[in-house]
Specification:
Two copies of one chain form a homodimer.
Chain A: E1 3-7, E2 12-16, E3 22-28, H1 34-41, H2 46-58, E4 62-66, H3 74-88, E5 93-96, H4 100-109, E6 115-120, H5 123-135, E7 139-143, H6 154-170, E8 178-181, H7 193-208, E9 211-212, H8 226-240, E10 244-247, H9 252-264, H10 272-278, H11 291-299
Parallel strand pairs in A: 3-4, 3-10, 4-5, 5-6, 6-7, 7-8, 8-9
Antiparallel strand pairs in A: 1-2
Helix pairs in contact in A: 2-3, 3-4, 6-7, 7-8, 8-9
């Protein structure tokens, strides 16, 4: 069983085939959020703080932190955001940047074993990101595209993932510390996007034996009722073997789909999480087994 | 590709790996419905009629008809119900009884190629039901239990299904006319019920190459928020290869899960069904592409 262990100073999260699905909260990301971008650029992290708390409250077990703001000092902002989030929550973080210097600054200040998001199969990225991952003893998200782009053929994407895992091993990073993102394409544009990614997830699990993650909401791009389609996608991907996703945990439909799939995959023992989330409140004064005592107390 | 073809006098439904999921409406069944049972026993089929119309309206493409009423003349009532339903809808029917004489009376009056629900792997049942299926050129639901009961081991259930398929072939019934029910157990009692049935569905599809069906709602027995769990189960089962279910099509959550899984399995071309069901109504007067013409008309 492949287990990817990441941690904060005080908390460990294990991603694995026999583990509950790992929800990586995606909200701390200024891309497409002008207000958040302006605030972070000005050193105001109040919204980052609120986003961190809300996502953990909603069930995220890892938080992604991204500070990609055009023309801003991304390495400094990313490091500050990482420190801030670690000071108010105990969940492990995914340090997310396309700028290597920003990744390094984030890793420098990080307490624990981080997830680095991400490396692709492009030669130039492998050469700079993997040494960093090794230096800081982190795990890494491996995106299954390379210099030739993103192949529509899931078997080509499998080969790219395999190459990254092998290169990581050359750098001394075990396969269990590589979490492959098979790349989810919009099904509205590519009708076989679901079948492709399910096939790829299954191969990644059975042949390469790695954990997997993805940006789940991409599947429903351009379609109506996205949350319902995302929820269905997530549960089917879990059925195929996917072990985590980078997603918005504030959406109840998606989280319900994941909780249901945890039950059905046998990783919510005795359906405890499902029952505690959804059981109907007992009628007043009818606490189970306490009826008689309750009546006695009332008479007193 | 295995295709199970069933039909009414005027309409054909094909169940298959590359087809939209086949929803078999389960409502016309007096089990646990006292009022319906009393009415049917008294020859009043108004509720059967209403149930038939509502289920087709909700998206059922096949209707199950059951007349299992204690002490009543089940063969007569089943035949009457079959005739009534065929007179008001054009969907093919699943003729559902544990009494062989009732199955035969239903088949006698049925117009088209019916689905017989069901035969088990019990020797005594195989010997009486399969000749009927052959005589009337029907398809049949094969339930994967036998004299020894229902095994918790999916591989034992696979062997029972295999035996039924082989016996059917001995009677001249092709494997494509056998739809296997792998038997869904309640996950609240058996934590591995999901994994077991997904594994079994996959084997039935890949090795035995048969279509499959199930009583989906059994999975959530005894648990809260059943519709959400059923919906998640249905989509995951479809991901594993299940091609139909006997279910209540009036529940929107389950039907949304199925529609989403149709999209993700690539059997809803261009997401047409999904979009037509869920697209938001255009704002008034903003019919796409007609803006200018619309304005001109208004001025006129």
């Amino acid at each position: 069983m492949t287990e990817t262990v990441i941690s904060s100073a005080t908390k460990t999260v294990v991603m694995g085939f026999d583990r509950p699905f790992c929800v990586i909260g995606e909200r701390i990301n200024p891309t497409g959020r002008k207000l958040l971008a302006a605030e972070m650029a000005a050193g105001d992290y109040s919204r980052v703080e609120a986003d961190a708390m809300a996502q953990v409250q909603a069930g995220a077990t890892v938080l992604d932190v991204n500070a990609g703001i055009p023309l801003a000092d991304e390495p400094k902002i990313l490091a500050e955001a990482v420190e801030l989030v670690q000071s108010i929550t105990d969940v492990p973080l995914s340090i997310d940047s396309s700028i290597v210097e920003a990744l390094e600054r984030g890793l420098e200040v990080y307490k624990g074993k981080a997830l680095v998001n991400s490396v692709t199969g492009e030669e130039e990225r492998l050469e700079v990101v993997l040494p960093l991952v090794k230096k800081y003893g982190a795990a890494v998200v491996a995106i299954s595209n390379d210099e030739t782009g993103i192949s529509e053929d899931p078997d080509v994407r499998f080969e790219v993932a395999k190459k990254i895992v092998e290169r990581a091993q050359d750098f001394g990073i075990p396969a269990s510390d590589v979490v492959v993102d098979p790349l989810v394409m919009p099904i509205g544009a590519l009708g076989q996007a679901g079948n492709s990614v399910f096939r790829l997830i299954r191969r990644l699990r059975e042949e390469l034996k790695v954990n997997t993650t993805c940006g789940a909401s991409n599947i429903s791009f351009g379609l109506p009722n996205r949350h319902a389609l995302n929820a269905t996608f997530l549960s089917m991907a879990m059925g195929a073997g996917m072990t985590s996703a980078i997603m918005n945990p504030l959406h109840q439909e998606e989280m319900t789909g994941i909780m249901g799939a945890n039950v059905l995959c046998g990783v919510d023992p005795d359906c405890r999480h499902w029952i505690s989330k959804f059981r109907e409140p007992a009628p007043e004064g009818a606490a189970a087994g306490n009826d008689r005592r309750e009546r006695r107390r009332r008479r007193a």
